[in-house]
């Protein structure tokens, strides 16, 4: 999997800083909010719970914008770091509370910060977990990264835009197969924008959603794949290997 290296001090410091931000942010939000019944504050697991949560938070967003932003980011980053399902509801919530432009910026920031935190955590302790959960995917990913090293950013962008590999797996496996953090971060920041746009836009009309299947119509899915193909084309043109092996990862 590549030679073992000491964990750089700056990466350890950044990872610790992100973890500390969870606790500080949530405590700060709690202390600065008015006395009230906050029993409605829980992670939504379906659209009905999300709509209920949105209805309550809309009353606070205009008067306590900073607190809601900090609380939102802390929860989103925590969920991404520890692979807690449900971030799609958080993305919808961003659209409902903050609109298209601010919502997309917020989702991309929080998702990228959470992915980075997961990256650092995996670099420290994640190798046994990834080996046990996805041995075949890890072997495939390692070969692809080694083969496309010269144009790795294009390949990582392709993975972020398309569902070729799960985002959770990418976050955990990237440090293990020696994907440089700056490439991981840049691909995450750029590659998450299309999906964030689609989800946030749906969140603006949250009341009209009846199912998560309504999020991605044929046109949206085709657009995401087109962006993915465009992003990976330079890497494919510079490699003599045939591309169909990418399909192995989805099995």
From TrEMBL:
Subcellular location(s) of the protein: Membrane
GO terms under cellular component: membrane
Keyword Membrane: yes
VTT domain: residues covered: 84-203
Membrane topology reported for the UniProt record: Multi-pass membrane protein
Positions of transmembrane segments: 12-33, 75-98, 104-131, 179-200, 221-237
Keywords: Membrane, Transmembrane, Transmembrane helix
GO biological process: autophagosome assembly
Protein's recorded name: VTT domain-containing protein
Organism, as annotated: Zizania palustris (Northern wild rice)
């Amino acid at each position: 999997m590549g030679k073992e290296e000491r964990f750089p001090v700056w990466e350890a410091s950044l990872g610790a800083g992100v973890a500390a931000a969870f606790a500080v942010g949530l405590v700060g939000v709690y202390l600065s909010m008015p006395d009230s019944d906050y029993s409605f504050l829980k992670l939504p697991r379906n659209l009905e719970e999300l709509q209920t949560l949105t209805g309550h938070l809309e009353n606070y967003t205009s008067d306590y914008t900073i607190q809601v932003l900090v609380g939102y980011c802390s929860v989103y980053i925590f969920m991404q770091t520890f692979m807690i399902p449900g971030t799609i509801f958080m993305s919808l919530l961003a659209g409902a509370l903050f609109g298209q432009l601010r919502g997309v910026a917020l989702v991309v920031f929080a998702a990228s910060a959470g992915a980075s935190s997961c990256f650092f955590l995996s670099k420290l302790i994640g190798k046994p977990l990834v080996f046990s959960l996805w041995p075949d995917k890890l072997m495939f990913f390692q070969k692809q990264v080694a083969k496309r090293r010269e144009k790795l950013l294009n390949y990582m962008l392709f993975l972020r835009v398309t569902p070729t590999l799960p985002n959770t797996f990418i976050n955990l496996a990237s440090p293990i197969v020696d994907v440089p953090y700056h490439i991981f971060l840049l691909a995450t920041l750029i590659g998450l924008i299309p999906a964030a746009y689609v989800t946030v836009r749906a969140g603006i009309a949250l009341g009209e959603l009846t199912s998560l299947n309504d999020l991605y119509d044929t046109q949206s899915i085709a657009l995401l794949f087109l962006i993915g193909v465009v992003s990976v084309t330079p890497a494919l043109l510079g490699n003599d290997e045939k591309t169909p092996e990418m399909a192995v990862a989805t099995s």
